């Protein structure tokens, strides 16, 4: 028996702002209810695609995240164009000590939570 990732939960200060960013970045739909917005993958996503829950918190982010999502551009799209699109949505480039030879671009969402944009779906294979 094994486990699979069902949902990625992120603590956020401004759940409305972060829901709008995450929905636009990922193409997920937003459902409000409970303690914070829940984002659901598009209907054409594989059934095992994780959902996202934005859990409201009053605590501020401190330091580099110990875990983060790795994203990839669908259908082998243009990574640099996607970086620019994400920046237009409110993301920034982030420096966490990378050398420049990695198979990914490190970015941060509007609240400073790091994520990577991979040059291919599996940057290590």
UniProtKB/TrEMBL annotation:
PROSITE patterns found in the cross-reference section: VOC
Pfam family, one: Glyoxalase_6
Name of the protein described by the UniProt record: VOC domain-containing protein
Biased composition (Pro residues): 39-49
Disordered, as annotated region: 33-69
All copies of domain VOC, residue ranges: 4-120
Superkingdom of source: Bacteria
Record Gene3D superfamilies: 2,3-Dihydroxybiphenyl 1,2-Dioxygenase, domain 1
InterPro entries, per the entry: Glyas_Bleomycin-R_OHBP_Dase, Glyoxalase_6, VOC_core
């Amino acid at each position: 028996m094994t486990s699979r990732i069902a949902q990625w939960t992120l603590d956020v200060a401004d759940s409305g702002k972060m829901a709008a960013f995450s929905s636009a970045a990922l193409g997920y739909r937003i459902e409000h209810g409970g303690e914070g917005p829940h984002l659901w993958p598009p209907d054409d996503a594989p059934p095992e695609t994780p959902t996202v829950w934005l859990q409201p918190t009053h605590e501020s982010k401190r330091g580099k995240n110990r875990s983060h999502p790795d994203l990839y551009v669908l259908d082998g799209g243009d990574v640099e164009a996607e970086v620019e699109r994400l920046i237009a949505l409110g993301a920034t480039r982030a420096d966490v000590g990378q050398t420049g030879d990695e198979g990914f671009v490190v970015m941060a969402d509007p609240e400073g939570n790091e994520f990577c944009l991979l040059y291919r779906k599996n940057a290590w294979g």
